[in-house]
């Protein structure tokens, strides 16, 4: 489930990717002192598949009036689905569908700064980038994660920054101008099922880890003090670790190759 970052036709809009292989849109409707979710639109992706993820093209929350509202979704057959939201109705419309991964496509996400570009992660261990105007061929394919890629989010604050997480229990930060190596590589406890950038504090990244619980990382040193990587950078270059924030804003250094347990 994911809320649209901006109101649509005067309502907050919730997108749901469900096990029936559909994308459902629900409007938050208020009446007196109560609120309820009202069905707005539904779109069936494919027969005999599970809808596994969705993302809105509105991550920067300042969409231009002429910019179309779009949804990208992934499914259990390894496909990506680009949908358009017509605010006046009938709602969701299919734009393009293409094969992205050999196995489950766990996650799909927009580049919030250039919404023609989307990213995907699959159970084949690949992180891929796509130009939705020519989706037949990926614009990059990375094998840097050693297991299935299951979380991706573009930073709404820094144009070229991308965060990814995997069943390999690592969070990677990337500068998308050079996908040969990540800016940061930090190990956590458990697969990284979800990643979210803080809406206001631009360096804070929330991670939902399968065994390690929820963790908040300060990415300022990795992002703010690291220059744009050179095209000739060595893949063996050292990475700047992320800083794990504890319960009272205490900072713990995170060794890129070791897990750190949050204190009680």
Rg, rounded, reads: 18 Å
User: Helix- and strand-based class?
Assistant: mainly beta
Q: Give the integer mean of the pLDDT values.
A: 85
Write the H/E string, N to C. EEEEEEEEEEEEEEEEEEEHEE
- In terms of DSSP E residues, the strand content is over 45%
| Helical proportion, percent range | under 10%
**Low confidence ranges:** 230-238, 250-264
Give the overall silhouette: globular
Largest sheet, order of strands side by side? 17-18-19-20-21
Report the biggest beta sheet as strand number plus sense, adding barrel if it closes: 5 strands, antiparallel
Number of strands: 21
Q: Note the total helix count.
A: 1
N/C terminus separation = 30 Å
How would you describe the overall organization of this protein?
It is a single chain. With 264 residues, the chain is mostly beta strands. Helices cover 2% and strands 46% of the residues. The protein has one helix and 21 strands. It has one helix spanning 220-224, and strands at 2-3, 13-17, 22-31, 34-44, 51-56, 69-75, 79-85, 92-99, 105-110, 117-122, 127-131, 140-142, 149-154, 161-166, 170-175, 184-187, 192-197, 204-209, 213-218, 243-245, 251-253. Strand 2 and strand 3 (22-31) form a beta hairpin. It starts with a strand and ends in an 11-residue tail after the last strand. 40% of the residues are buried. Mean pLDDT is 85; it is low at 230-238 and 250-264.
């Amino acid at each position: 489930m994911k809320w649209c970052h901006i109101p649509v036709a005067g309502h907050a809009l919730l997108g749901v990717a469900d096990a029936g292989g559909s994308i459902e849109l629900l409007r938050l409707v208020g009446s007196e002192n109560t609120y309820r979710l009202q069905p707005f639109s539904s779109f069936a992706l494919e027969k005999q598949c599970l809808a596994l993820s969705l993302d809105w093209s509105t991550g920067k929350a300042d969409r231009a009036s002429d910019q179309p509202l779009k949804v990208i979704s992934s499914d259990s057959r390894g496909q990506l689905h680009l949908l358009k939201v017509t605010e006046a109705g009938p709602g969701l419309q299919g734009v393009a569908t293409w094969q992205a991964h050999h196995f489950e496509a766990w996650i799909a996400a927009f580049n919030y700064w250039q919404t023609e570009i989307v990213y995907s992660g699959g159970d084949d261990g690949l992180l891929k980038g796509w130009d939705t105007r020519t989706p037949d061929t990926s614009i990059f394919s990375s094998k840097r994660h050693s297991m299935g890629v299951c979380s991706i989010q573009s930073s709404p604050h820094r144009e070229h920054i991308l965060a990814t997480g995997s069943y390999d229990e690592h969070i990677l930060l990337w500068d998308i101008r050079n996908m040969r190596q990540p800016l940061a590589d930090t190990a956590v406890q458990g697969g990284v099922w979800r990643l979210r950038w803080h809406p206001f504090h631009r360096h804070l990244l929330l991670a939902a880890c399968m065994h390690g619980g929820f963790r908040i990382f300060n990415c300022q040193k990795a992002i703010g003090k690291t220059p744009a990587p050179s095209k000739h950078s060595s893949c063996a270059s050292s990475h700047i670790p992320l800083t794990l924030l504890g319960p009272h804003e205490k900072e713990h250094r995170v060794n890129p190759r070791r897990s750190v347990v949050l204190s009680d």
